[in-house]
Amino acid sequence: MERGMTGDQVLAALWRRKALVGAITAAVFAVGAAVVMTRPNLYEASSVVRVEPQRPSEEMVQRTVSELIEQRLLTVRQELMARPVLQKAIEEMNLYPDIVSEKGVESAVVQMRKDLTVRVEGENAFELTYVSRDPQVAAQVANRLPALFAEETLKLRQAQASRATQLFSEEMDSLAKSVSTWERRIAQFKVDHMGELPEQLEMNMRGLERVSQLMQTKSEELRAAEARRSDLARARNAADSEAGRLEAAESGLSRALVNARTTWTEDHPEVKRLNSELETMTVRRKDAEGRLVADRQERARVATLIEAVQGEIKDLQTQAEAFQKRLDNTPRWAHELGVLNRDYEIARTKYQSVVSRRVEAELAEGLEAKTAQSLFNVISPAGVPAVPAKPDRFGGLLITLLVALGLGVLTGVVLEMRDDSIRDGHELRQRLTLPVLAVVPNMQGKTEKRVLMPTSQTRSGISSPTTLN
Q1: Angle between helices 201-263 and 269-370 (to 10 degrees)
Q2: How far apart are CA 429 and CA 434, in angstroms?
Q3: Who wins on pLDDT, 355 or 451?
Q4: How many helices (H) and strands (E) does the chain have?
Q5: Distance from C-alpha of 99 to C-alpha of 428, rounded to nearest angstrom
Q6: What does the alpha-carbon distance between residue 290 and residue 268 come to, in Å, rounded to a whole number?
Q7: Rounded CA gap, 295 and 239, in Å?
Q8: Do the beta carbons of residue 148 and residue 85 sit within 8 Å?
Q9: For residue 379, which phi and psi values (nearest 5 degrees)?
Q10: DSSP 8-class letter at 69
Q11: Which H or E run contains 423?
Q12: pLDDT for 375
């Protein structure tokens, strides 16, 4: 039957079972001490790495890697514990050969995660601690892992910068083709509508004005030539009458001279008079006929001039119509050309922007490569540990001793609580409701015998025991 116990009772019970408690304590301590003493020595090596801010600032060069290197501290533990970094370290330094040969690299990675500790220190540094049975290996891994982490980080950042540059290059090639297409379309449009383009509006207006002035001038020349032809026509009629009259008069004189010569001699005054008048009339007739030829030539020249001026006026009218047609079509082509130029300017602006961004991306990629070695600075490299960090043998032995004592005491108390024996009057009074009349003390004799006998009857019919020796 289980019951409660006071401190004195516990001490008494442990004293009665001191041999058993001591044996259990000694056995548990021996086993625990053996475990503590046989555990292998584990050495810890730590290195501290500071993440340097990036230079130059974004005001000078727009970076294509948006993530600041200082932000890597937020995920440094996850990245250091990542499989690529740990697997590379395992393969490079031949770590956990037994685990790799028996269970594979993945199991070795899991074990290395257990042996690795990463803590962020402040705002721009982290501490890496590695535990190994070999102090040389512990120091080697603690110094190599930050370098591997830096290599992977820088490789990732350079890949991001390179992808950004490649992206801008591909976009620039695409936009260059688009710009070339728009330029060809605009050039072909200008060829198809040459003379009717907006930039030729002023030239067409000046050409129309010049043609109008020439038409006015030619019209004046045409009017003057037609007036001259009218005058020549009137003069021709008069000249024709005079030449006919003189010719008729010359014929009459010739007949009169022939008649006079048949009547008189050459020396006759009448013959001489007629001969002189005939010569004079002949000269006058020839002069009139000469003037008539000149008039005819002038009329022909004037007619030719009129025809030429009329042709020029017709050509000028054709030119004026052409200029007017150009001016009428200019607003229409100006709208279409404006649409083409607008789309071309949009494409060209995009192209120039992408070209500028690609140049910045190339600069950023170059700076990323140049500043790569200075981003991670090992300010406290790991040294070879001289003493093991684990196990703490003194603490382990102390804990083992406490556990052994606890188990011994617990065993003694549990046995005592499960023991139903009555060893004194106090226990008897607690366990029975009958009064105890007397207690016979233990005389420490070799033949003593302790017997419990009932005494008087109680109201319930139960007698109180009497202790006899």
Answers
A1: 170
A2: 7
A3: 355
A4: 11, 6
A5: 65
A6: 33
A7: 9
A8: yes
A9: -90, -15
A10: G
A11: none
A12: 65
Furthest CA-CA distance within the chain: 237
Query: Average of pLDDT values for 298-309?
Result: 81
The SS3 assignment for 59 reads: coil
| pLDDT band (50, 70, 90) for residue 6 | low
* Domain range summary for the chain, segments of one domain joined by +: 198-367, 422-469
The highest-level CATH class for domain 198-367 is mainly alpha
Q: How far apart are CA 11 and CA 24, in angstroms?
A: 17
151: exposed, middle or buried (Cβ count in 10 Å: 0-12, 13-18, 19+): middle
Ordered DSSP codes for 253-304: HHHHHHHHHHHS-TTSHHHHHHHHHHHHHHHHHHHHHHHHHHHHHHHHHHHH
Q: Alpha helices, DSSP H only, in 94-134? A: 97-103, 105-115
Bridge-based pairing of strands 376-380 and 125-132 is unpaired
- Measured at the CA of 185, the angle between CA 183 and CA 189, to 5 degrees, comes to 115
Q: Minimum mean pLDDT among 19-23, 59-63, 424-428: which range?
A: 59-63
Consecutive H or E run containing 361: helix 269-370
Contact 55, 364 (CB under 8 A): no
Between CA 363 and CA 60 the distance in angstroms is 11
What are 437's strand-pairing partners?
none
- Rounded distance between C-alpha atoms, residue 359 and residue 352, angstroms: 11
pLDDT value of position 298: 74
- The 3 state secondary structure assigned to 133-162 is CCHHHHHHHHHHHHHHHHHHHHHHHHHHHH
Instruction: Name the DSSP class of 122.
Output: T
User: Contact 129/115 with Cβ under 8 angstroms?
Assistant: no
Question: What is the radius of gyration, based on Cα positions, of the chain?
Answer: 68
Angle at 271 between CA 270 and CA 273, to 5 degrees: 65
**Cβ(175)–Cβ(344) below 8 Å:** no
Question: Which strands form 125-132's sheet, in the order they lie side by side?
Answer: 116-121, 125-132, 43-51, 376-380
Q: Using the structure block, give the residue that is written with the tokens 């025991």.
A: 465
C-beta separation of 408 from 25 below 8 A: yes
The Cα 139–Cα 146 span in angstroms is: 12
pLDDT averaged over the chain?
75
385's tokens: 């540990």
